[in-house]
Amino acid sequence: MHQYPQHQGYQEQQAHQEDHEQQAHAQPKRSRRRIWISAVVALALLLGGGGFAAWKLDWLSGNGEAVSFGKNPPQAQAPAPETSEPGAPATPAKPSGDPDVLMPAGPKSDFKQTTRLDDGTIIAKTRLAGAKSGFEGDVWVWAPKEYDDPKYAKSGFPVLIALPGGNGFPANYWSDRSLGLQKAIGEGVQAGTSLPFIVIMPVLNPDAKYYYDGSDIPGQAKMGTWMAEDVPDFAKANFRTYKSRDGWAFMGSSSGAFVGMKTVLQHPDRFKAVIASGGEIVPDSPLWKGHQAEMDANNPEELAQKLIDGNGPEVYINFQIGTKESGKERMTKFQQQYGKGPVKITIRDIQNGEHNGWHYVRGMKEGSLEWVSKVLKGPKPEAG
After folding, report:
1. DSSP class of residue 222?
2. What is the DSSP letter of 74?
3. Residue 73 gets which letter from DSSP?
4. Is 318 helix (H, G, I), strand (E, B) or coil?
5. Among 134, 157, 137, which residue's Cα sits nearest to residue 147?
6. Are 176 and 125 within 8 A, CB to CB?
7. 0.90 exceeded by the pTM?
8. Which residues contact 176 (CB under 8 A, 6 or more apart)?
9. Alpha-carbon gap, residue 371 to 318, rounded angstroms
10. Residue-wise pLDDT tens for the chain (384 aa)?
């Protein structure tokens, strides 16, 4: 396996997630899973009632079963008798108030639960065949509990596309509840410091051998098209979102931070903001060899300058960097050179933070979630 020094800090974390996935695949039958759960319950009972409560086995319940998001869709609206022909079908209810709301376009994907959070929300996985990129890969999703609240049945929700570091294949480690990303968002909603984001977590690369810079490298899988077009199209097909870029952002760590930032700068008409944690600034895949022009077209430095020269549209970049990791000088230099005009750049220091997802989530809780929530638009409850 080709190793990239700037991404090695995530290999242990990626291995943890891969082990998690392998365990899930190793238990395809509900009976086997139930046997395993029963053994854990028996052990917990031996520990006493308090010990049993501490195990909190609810997050295992339902894994592998079908999941349906949006349990309270707008009801069909009966046609007006004086204008409709007999037997005409009911007209679907339209989003109220905000013309920017985009209702699910379909076709619906088949989701299987991978874990349940303490608040009852679900992380689920599906297989996406990218119609535009031709690449097929796994995607994990999470919707906040507000998504199923009838008050928001006609409202759009902001989308946060979360990208992992390391190989980013075959799993996306942000789908692991132990990192706490979804919990941080849920708690932020309750505290009034975060919007209730829908979190989309696609695989980052098509294999574990190379890193593809989230780009359409000639002769390789079109990972740029996958990330900028197929993944958002998938979100629009399955969830109530927004037509405008005001409801779309990325977050990522290490290699995923680079891809998120690059994609926002490359497609400012589709995406508005990115939280980029511990990431690189320039493309570095060995697969670019012999394709300098194409690599330049995917270089955030070139893309930022193009936005500055064209006077917009505005994009928002929030770098996160731990005080115990290297790389801040790259972020500072980029901010000094390109943080002007339409390119809005901030840098958040995570005190005693290291190059890992747990510390980046802490940084998000300490301020980056609130930052991105002020940049994007949130759902609006229906009056009454």
Report:
1. B
2. P
3. P
4. strand
5. 157
6. no
7. no
8. 16, 17, 20, 115
9. 8
10. 333 333 444 444 444 444 433 333 333 333 333 433 343 334 344 444 444 444 445 556 789 999 999 875 444 333 333 333 444 343 444 565 799 999 999 999 999 999 999 999 999 999 999 999 999 999 999 999 999 999 999 999 999 999 999 889 999 999 999 999 999 999 999 999 999 999 999 999 999 999 999 999 999 999 999 999 999 999 999 999 999 999 999 999 999 999 999 999 999 999 999 999 998 999 999 999 999 999 999 999 999 999 999 999 999 999 999 999 999 999 999 999 999 999 999 999 999 999 999 999 999 999 999 999 999 999 999 864
Residue 223: beta bridge partners?
none
| Residue corresponding to tokens 């979804």 | 182
CA dihedral 297, 300, 303, 309 (to 10 degrees): -140
Q: Is the dihedral of CA 364, 370, 375, 378 positive or negative?
A: positive
Rounded to whole angstroms, the Cα distance separating 35 from 39 reads 6
d(CA 336, CA 319) in angstroms, rounded, equals 13
- Please spell the DSSP secondary structure of 163-197, one letter per residue: E-STT--S--GGGSGGG-HHHHHHHHHHHTSS---
Give the residue from 278, 237, 234, 272 showing the smallest Cα distance to 255: 278
Query: Which are the contacts of 185, defined by CB distance < 8 A and separation ≥ 6?
Result: 144, 160, 194, 196, 197, 199, 369
Chain length of the chain = 384
DSSP-assigned letters across all residues of 238-290: HS-EESSGGGEEEEEETHHHHHHHHHHHH-TTT--EEEEES--SS---GGGTT
Per the CB < 8 A criterion, the answer to whether 371 and 339 are in contact is no
Q: Which residues pair with 87 in a beta bridge?
A: none
In whole angstroms, give the CA distance from residue 370 to residue 194: 5
Question: How far does the chain reach from its first CA to its final CA, in angstroms?
Answer: 58
Give the Cα-Cα-Cα angle 92, 97, 100 (nearest 5 degrees). 85
